[in-house]
Design brief:
By secondary structure, the protein is of the alpha/beta class. It folds into 3 domains: 236 residues, Aminohydrolase, N-terminal nucleophile (Ntn) domain (Glutamine Phosphoribosylpyrophosphate, subunit 1, domain 1), CATH 3.60.20; 204 residues, Rossmann fold (3-Layer(aba) Sandwich); 141 residues, Rossmann fold. The protein contains 19 helices and 27 strands. The strands form 5 sheets. An 8-stranded antiparallel beta sheet has the order 3-2-4-1-10-9-11-15, with helices on one face. Strands 5-6-7-8-12-13-14 form a 7-stranded antiparallel beta sheet. A 5-stranded parallel beta sheet has the order 19-18-20-21-22, sandwiched between helices. It is globular, with a radius of gyration of 25 Å. The protein binds 2-deoxy-2-amino glucitol-6-phosphate. The site of 2-deoxy-2-amino glucitol-6-phosphate has 15 residues, from helix 9.
Length: 609
């Protein structure tokens, strides 16, 4: 995934583009570049490395004058990170520059055609093909040239285009990669997401797939793929700029961990009234909900781990089968579903290509799509029949935390809502769970107060090179998330294992000093969890146990160390248990000197297959 930004207005473009790119760097940080018209020609500055390297190259922006330009920060797909493969990519004459987020799937054949026409290529990127092809079709009108190119390229793309021969207009194009327009008085923006432009304007247009936009200082005109003008709704963004700032924390990840109680209040409280879950304007009828025979949950990464918890919880509440599948697998497994199957798609970014493709596959098979998404107006949200937003606010750290916990809460709200409609649990059971949902944010605040104790544990364990997470039922699902958090930011190898499965092979890896995090919050299986702790201890493991306060003493007889959470409804245990595991991963990574907000090889949203 990459970040793109474009500006046309009355101020110097370079500093504005650099500031926008700094807010998009979480989307990719292999290299960065800008292309700005300086009054005579397009000036391009780009370099491998972080945005700081680009900023230094152009003296914070002062080295390039001009009030129209585009910028890019890259997560490499085609072509290794290098100066020449950085964006903007430029046409042979140098008069057309393109920044791109996505993949041009037929770039090889287009490149072969252009080479046969005598076009020389400088880079290994798919994006350069777009710049060269626009020049190939260019006859004095950049909008028409882009229109011709769009009929020939295949793939996913958000494009920002500038032409030195027409330096008063920018062109924006969207297909399968997010792109928004920021509208101002005497200035306009294009950007991958709102964080890049909210400092300047809150009035945004969410572009749809296949749309093209022409931006000038005076205004913005949108077109469909036939270059017919289309009217677009202007949305007003209401969250504060500091929501996308660190707010005094050393890392976005720690800020977002600590924001979780507030995020949960935003996700839960508006959806509970008089002790019942209320989903306003919910697009599924009571009849449809009662007729449901199966649920498929489809997602990737941490969102998939939410789905794993969701399986256990929804099956308890609804007594219908709930299948959880990795989106990248769902697409190729000939899934068995029909119009009595609800497909729940979970995605923080709403742009994950695997998940989007699975959504389209399920839609094609006749299922209704309900998505649980954080980014408002994202592609997945726009293509779903029903959307439940998590309202976590912008999540900048690559490793998700508050989005994960608000997704969990929304799944539980949905389960309780469906259970009420289907009459599948008693009113007492439902109201007990709703009561605990309302207490969840304050109980989570109690857990977060253990931050220093967890930091101490991290100091004991940060030098391990392999860490196991074991658990049963929802504790196993929670262990999956704890293991992924640890892996992605500390680079320590880790696996999460169903405790009962250890003895079928993997226990051979347990030896003196192996660290095992035993997740044992689920009361019904606590005794089993204890026997698994004894099982690994007897083979030399060090055990860090996560359990509820009322079981600390019992667990203390066997575990080397204990982290506790307040007791709560069994549906909500992962919502409390995840915070200590997030903090453990954070502090271990911090002690290992890792780049916590921007881990190597990762991007905030994976918009490639
Ligand atoms: C989570 O910490 C990871 N960054 C990653 O697994 C992520 O959850 C996954 O890529 C799915 O992203 P999405 O929720 O935006 O679809």
């Amino acid at each position: 995934m990459c970040g793109i930004v474009g500006y046309v207005g009355g101020e110097e473009a370079a500093p504005i583009l650099l500031d926008g790119l700094a807010r998009l760097e979480y989307r990719g940080y292999d290299s960065a570049g800008v292309a700005i018209f300086d009054g005579e020609r397009l000036r391009v500055a780009k370099t491998k490395g972080r945005l700081r390297a680009l900023s230094d190259m152009i003296q914070g922006g002062s080295a390039i004058r001009g009030s129209i330009g585009v910028g890019h920060t890259r997560w490499a797909t085609h072509g290794a990170p290098s100066d020449v493969n950085s964006h903007p990519q430029v046409s042979r004459s140098g008069r057309i520059a393109v920044v791109h987020n996505g993949i041009i799937e037929n770039y090889a054949e287009l490149k072969a055609f252009l080479v046969s026409q005598g076009v020389d290529f400088a880079s290994e990127t798919d994006t350069e093909v777009v710049a060269q092809l626009i020049e190939y079709f260019y006859d004095g009108d950049i909008l028409k040239a882009v229109g011709r190119v769009l009929h020939r390229i295949e793939g996913a793309y958000a494009l920002g285009i500038i032409c030195g021969d027409e330096p008063e207009r920018l062109i924006a194009v969207r297909k399968d990669s997010p792109l928004i327009l920021g509208l101002g008085e005497g200035f306009n923006f294009l950007a991958s997401d709102v964080t890049a432009i909210i400092k300047h304007t809150r009035n945004v247009v969410y572009m749809e797939d296949g749309e093209i936009a022409e931006l000038t200082r005076e205004g913005v005109t949108c077109y469909n793929h036939l270059l017919q003008p289309v009217r677009k709704e202007v949305s007003h963004v209401d969250w504060e700029i500091d929501a996308a700032e660190k707010g005094g924390y050393e890392h976005f990840m720690l800020k977002e961990i600590m924001e979780q109680p507030e995020a949960l209040r935003r996700a839960i409280f508006p959806r509970i009234r008089d002790g019942e879950v209320i989903l306003e304007d919910f697009g599924l009828s009571d009849e449809y909900i009662r007729a449901l025979r199966k649920i498929f949950i489809v997602a990737c990464g941490s969102s998939y781990h939410v789905g794993m918890v969701g399986k256990y919880n929804l099956e308890k509440l609804l007594r219908i089968p709930v299948e959880v599948t990795l989106a990248s697998e769902f697409r190729y497994m000939d899934p068995i579903l029909d119009d009595n199957t609800l497909v729940i798609v979970i995605s923080q970014s709403g742009e994950t290509l695997d998940t989007m493709a699975a959504l389209r596959e399920a839609k094609g098979l006749g299922a209704k799509i309900l998505s649980i998404v954080n980014v408002v107006g994202s592609s997945i949200a726009r293509e779903s029949d029903v959307v439940l937003y998590t309202w976590a606010g912008p999540e900048i750290a690559v490793a998700t935390t508050k989005a994960y916990s608000t997704q969990l809460a929304v799944v539980d709200l949905l389960g309780l809502y469906f259970a009420r409609k289907r009459g599948s649990i008693t009113a007492e059971r439902r109201q007990a769970a709703v009561g605990e949902l309302l207490l969840l944010p304050s109980k989570l605040e109690q857990v977060l107060e253990k931050q220093e104790a967890i930091q101490y544990f991290a100091s004991q364990y940060f030098n391990h090179d392999s860490i196991f997470f074991i658990g049963r039922n929802v504790d196993y699902a929670l262990g999956l998330e704890g293991s992924l958090k640890l892996k992605e930011i500390s680079y320590i190898h880790s696996e999460a294992y169903a405790s009962g499965e250890l003895k079928h092979g993997t226990i051979s890896l347990i030896e003196d000093g192996t660290l095992v995090v035993a997740v044992a919050t689920y009361a019904r299986l606590f005794d089993k969890a204890m026997s698994n702790v004894v099982e690994v201890k007897s083979r030399g493991a060090d055990v860090l146990a996560l359990t509820t306060e009322d079981r600390a003493e019992t667990m203390g007889r066997n575990a080397n160390a204990i982290i506790t959470i307040p007791d709560t409804d069994e549906l909500l245990l992962p919502s409390l248990g995840v915070a200590p595991l997030q903090l453990l991963a954070y502090y271990i990574a911090l002690m290992r000197g890792c780049d916590i907000d921007k881990p190597r090889n990762l991007a905030k949203s994976v918009t490639v297959e």
